[in-house]
Amino acid sequence: MILPRHGLISSRLHYFQTVARLGSIRRAAQALNVAPSAISRTIQHLEQELGAPLFERARQRLKLTSAGEILVYHAGASVAELDRARAFIDDLQGLRRGSVSIAAVESVARGLLPETLSRFWSRYPDVAVQVTTTGSQQAFEAVARGECDLAIAFDARPPKGTQRLAGANLRLGALVPPKHALAARRGVRLREFAAERVILSDASLTLGSSIEAAILGSGIELKPIAVTNSIHLMSAFAVRGHGVTFQTRVGVERELEEGELVFVPFNDPSLRPRKLMLIARGKAHLAAGPAALAAMLSEAIQRLDGR
DNA sequence: ACTCGTACATCCACCGGCGA
DNA sequence: TCGCCGGTGGATGTACGAGT
Questions:
Q1: Is the shortest CB-to-strand distance from A48 to strand C under 7 Å?
Q2: Which protein family is named in the record (predicted)?
Q3: pLDDT-derived band of residue A61, with 50, 70 and 90 as boundaries?
Q4: I need a surface site. Which of A95, A214, A246, A252 has the fewest CB within 10 A?
């Protein structure tokens, strides 16, 4: 049994509209892919219900009566309203039990994302979320390829076909233990850590490459005690007093809140703020679930701007 | 004018899915 | 399980146009 595109709610109106448009039950039947008899009977039912003929049967041609003209006008409005209602209902269902996929850099997955998802799930508890941690450029490319709905990353170029939804400039700084000599300072220079044990991120992270460029540009020689691509390890080493590390506040929210580390921003002009960005494949592509999460993430990212 | 082929709407019997 | 509803295919009646 082939149902017309509007289902039972408006199939009669849809049949009627098609017959009125084509002026023939047979052509309407071909257009709708049903038997002519089905349409004929549907029209008869409508006429019985309304108590008035909708077509004049003359010379093998169906011509709308005045009642038919009135119904054509109102049926068009009704079908359009049903389409609108269907779109709203689809969106509502997407928010009730849809899914969202996100690619994010590790630092975002440690703090910003869990915090925002807690708020998201308090409103939309049945929307499933798939989170993949990866490098910045890879995260953005995953969105461009349609493999995920949203991506959050640092200092990466949004690929063609994607749209930037939010951005924030985040200062780079040193993460030091509370008892460190520089912990109370309002700002520091990179060269002040020349004699220190430092924990650096490797060049596979955008963080690593921007710090490496600043080190090379200033001619400072640092003594890295550890080099890693893990934001988690960098902060864990720093908390245990193995050395100081350099990054933004994103990813170490818990350590800062609990007083395990202190963030001291850099004053070096060569250490420019890092740009955190949220992208999607264009707002028009976002279903209800991803759109709702994107709105919450945008708000959270914009609150970070300048910090 | 009549016949014939074609196109169309309608009627009827029957089938299958779905909900009470 | 049964009734309702919407589907299909075949039969039938009607109208039209072309050919004779």
A1: no
A2: Belongs to the LysR transcriptional regulatory family.
A3: low
A4: A95
- Whether residue A216 lies inside any domain: the answer is yes
Residue linked to tokens 């002519």: A36
Q: How many angstroms separate the CA of A59 from the C1' of B2? A: 21
pLDDT band for position A218 (50/70/90)? confident
The residues, any chain, with a CB within 8 Å of residue A82's CB and separated by 6 or more, are A6, A9, A10
Determine which of A70-84, A91-105, A160-174, A235-249 has the lowest per-residue pLDDT on average.
A70-84
Proximity of residue A190 CB to strand B below 7 A: no
For residue A170, is pLDDT > 80?
yes
User: In what helix (H) or strand (E) does residue A256 lie, and over which residues does it extend?
Assistant: helix A253-257
User: In angstroms, how far is C20 C1' from A30 CA?
Assistant: 35
**Is the domain of A62 the same as that of A184?**
no
A91 and A102, same structural domain?
A: no
pLDDT tens-digit map of A22-60? 777 766 776 666 667 667 767 776 776 666 677 766 545
Contact A252, A263 (CB under 8 A): yes
- Same domain membership, residue A231 and residue A110: no
* Euclidean distance between CA atoms A39 and A284, whole angstroms: 37
Strand B positions with any atom < 7 Å from protein CB? 7-13, 16-17
Round to whole Å and give the CA distance between A276 and A133: 15
pLDDT of residue A261: 95
A123 CB below 7 A from strand B atoms: no
> Chain-wide mean pLDDT for chain A?
80
Domain that residue A299 falls in:
98-169+275-304
Residues A110 and A85 both lie in one domain: no
| Domain shared by A288 and A158, yes or no | yes
DSSP three-state, residue A171: coil
Which residues from the 78-97 window of protein chain A have CB within 7 angstroms of nucleic acid chain B? none
A137 touches strand B (CB under 7 A): no
